[in-house]
């Protein structure tokens, strides 16, 4: 039996709250960011990249608070290659027991052209900014953005400069998800061989998934000597996303014969984090997603089912419980009490405060009156809905009745509470959802466009709860909202209202178009 504790450690750097949150629509509230950071900290993530402090007051506040609260993880903030960004970043992370500044600049020919710096000018900027950061903090990460499309000689030159100026971690980003695994490994090997001082720092790998190779690229980099993997929960991130934390952790666990490294991650917390990130970001996990997809441990074909029943290892390379999926799916019913609910939720990874448990219990009883059996997924949807709607609620659905059927027009009759005052209205529409949404629009006029409307049944059966997610866009600001209910129209209306509540918060925080203006982040200053 292999003693994995004796194996070299690969650090896990989670950037769900920075690179992940950067995906259009994946906006999280302040409280949600704090909650996710706490879960990451408890899970054993070595470094949490908590945000980009100069990007907004909201980002600054979240990074500062996460830094204050973190018990185990190093807390890192992102900064472009200028002193203003770096100072602001330090102001936010300095509260952490273990703070880190992560500063970056695009070094490939395409990226050098944007700030219009030649090779020498950029080299000087790197020297100056890394030196400045190191004078503030002794844990500095530096990234040559678009490293995989940077000339090899120039990459070696700038990495050497950053190391001499005091960087302690050098991250090699495949910013546009362009690399092949063998190239990813080759770059790390080259840097280790050619750059003086390379053996004194940690190399990190940061891969995007545009060609579906992010996880393979990250693992290839580790094989070549990288000792930090940058990743996000569910692979959340811009465009096709980032390396998924759950994939690299489980790949190193299952194929420890090939990659004999260990991480400090408690893998049994993966499923809970995956669900929570999906809920707060509004990005559903695809059913066939590796490790955390709903189908990842389901066996449909007769041959597979037969094999699994005889010996689970015939078709499963890991156990569901390794990622925190409860093997038991005991149905709860209307006679189950508060203690049973608490213990079941704990088993599912939710440790709720008393007042939250009380609210969930009331909703659980109401659901049990309508639905014969309550499954794990029902409870997860219920808790998620409670947590989602726990945030600031300027708009609240008080009452909704709809008339629908083959004979139109469909009608909705609604009471909407706006900032504490009830407003009543009825409206017609092209279907009951349209009628209900029209009521909301008439009572709370806005310009937001509905970009996505998705309905999923949580479990089987016609009495199943529906989870609905909606995505709205207004002046370039993108927000998502979600809700669950056995009544699809109620879930839809609540999801719409939830997105509008987030839009109201977002309007106060960001200038119009900020969600689509990713270029500011790509520049050196
Ligand atoms: O993808 C990228 O290059 C980044 C950098 C800021 C590290 O996210
Ligand atoms: Zn990135």
Q: What are the key terms here?
A:
binds 3-methyl-2-oxobutanoic acid; binds zinc ion; TIM Barrel; acetyl-CoA C-acetyltransferase activity; alpha/beta; 2-isopropylmalate synthase activity; 3-stranded antiparallel β-sheet; 525 residues; disordered C terminus; leucine biosynthesis; 41% helix; Double Stranded RNA Binding Domain; Recoverin, domain 1
Tell me the distance between the termini.
Answer: 52 Å
Q: Could you tell me the strand content as a percent range?
A: 15-25%
What structural class is derived from the secondary structure elements? alpha/beta
Number of strands: 14
Q: Roughly what percent helix? A: 40-55%
What's the Cα radius of gyration? Answer: 24 Å
How many helices?
A: 18
- As for the CATH topology of the largest domain, it is TIM Barrel
Which ligands are bound? 3-methyl-2-oxobutanoic acid, zinc ion
Instruction: Provide the spatial order of strands within the biggest beta sheet.
Output: 1-2-3-4-5-6-7-8
CATH superfamily of the largest domain: Aldolase class I
Residue stretches low in confidence (pLDDT < 50, at least 5 long) are 516-525
Average pLDDT metric: 89
CATH architecture of the largest domain: Alpha-Beta Barrel
Quick one: CATH class of the largest domain? Alpha Beta
Shape: globular
**Largest beta sheet, briefly?**
8 strands, parallel, barrel
Number of domains: 3
Binding site for Mn(2+): 19, 206, 208, 242
Subunit structure: Homodimer.
GO molecular function: 2-isopropylmalate synthase activity; acetyl-CoA C-acetyltransferase activity; manganese ion binding
Pathway: Amino-acid biosynthesis; L-leucine biosynthesis; L-leucine from 3-methyl-2-oxobutanoate: step 1/4
């Amino acid at each position: 039996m292999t003693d994995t504790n004796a194996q070299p450690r690969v650090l896990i750097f989670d950037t769900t709250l920075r690179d992940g949150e950067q995906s259009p629509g994946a906006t999280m509230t302040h409280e949600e960011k704090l909650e996710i950071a706490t879960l990451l900290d408890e899970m054993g993530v070595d470094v949490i990249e908590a945000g980009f402090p100069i990007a907004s007051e909201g980002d600054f506040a979240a990074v500062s608070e996460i830094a204050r609260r973190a018990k185990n993880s190093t807390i890192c903030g992102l900064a472009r290659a200028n002193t203003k960004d770096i100072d602001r970043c330090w102001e936010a992370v300095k509260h952490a027991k273990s703070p880190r500044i992560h500063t970056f600049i695009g070094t490939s020919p395409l990226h050098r052209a944007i700030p219009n710096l030649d090779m020498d000018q950029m080299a000087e900027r790197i020297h100056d900014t890394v030196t400045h950061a190191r004078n503030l903090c002794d844990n500095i990460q530096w990234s040559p953005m678009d490293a995989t499309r940077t000339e090899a000689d120039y990459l070696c030159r700038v990495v050497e400069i950053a190391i001499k100026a005091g960087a302690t971690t050098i991250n090699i980003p495949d910013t546009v998800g362009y690399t092949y695994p063998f190239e990813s490994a080759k770059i790390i090997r080259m840097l280790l061989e050619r750059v003086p001082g390379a053996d004194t720092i940690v190399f990190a790998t940061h891969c995007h998934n545009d060609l579906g190779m992010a996880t393979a690229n990250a693992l290839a980099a580790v094989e070549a000597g990288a000792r930090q993997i940058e990743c996000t929960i569910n692979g959340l991130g811009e465009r096709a996303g980032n390396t998924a934390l759950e994939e690299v952790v489980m790949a190193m666990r299952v194929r420890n014969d090939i990659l004999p490294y260990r991480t400090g991650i408690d893998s049994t917390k993966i499923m809970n984090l995956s669900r929570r990130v999906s809920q707060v970001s509004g990005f559903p996990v695809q059913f066939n997603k590796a490790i955390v997809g709903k189908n990842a441990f389901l066996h449909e074909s007769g041959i597979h089912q037969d094999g699994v029943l005889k010996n689970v290892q015939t078709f499963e390379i890991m156990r569901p419980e390794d990622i925190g999926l409860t093997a038991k799916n005991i149905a709860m019913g209307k006679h189950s009490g508060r203690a049973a609910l608490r213990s079941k939720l704990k088993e599912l990874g939710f440790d709720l405060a008393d007042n939250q448990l009380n609210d969930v219990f009331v909703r659980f009883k109401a659901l049990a009156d309508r639905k014969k059996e309550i499954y794990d997924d029902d409870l997860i949807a219920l808790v998620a809905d409670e947590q989602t709607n726990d945030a600031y609620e300027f708009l609240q659905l008080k009452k909704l009745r709809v008339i629908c059927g083959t004979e139109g027009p469909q009608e909705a009759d609604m009471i909407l509470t706006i900032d504490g005052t009830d407003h009543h209205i009825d409206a017609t529409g092209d279907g009951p959802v349209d009628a209900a949404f029209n009521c909301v629009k008439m009572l709370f006029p806005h310009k937001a466009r509905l970009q996505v409307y998705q309905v999923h049944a949580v479990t089987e059966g016609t009495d199943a709860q529906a989870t609905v997610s909606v995505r709205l866009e207004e002046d370039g600001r993108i927000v998502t909202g979600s809700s669950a209910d056995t009544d699809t129209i109620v879930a839809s209306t609540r999801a719409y209202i939830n997105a509008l509540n987030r839009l109201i918060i977002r309007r106060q925080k960001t200038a119009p178009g900020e969600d689509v203006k990713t270029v500011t982040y790509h520049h050196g200053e």
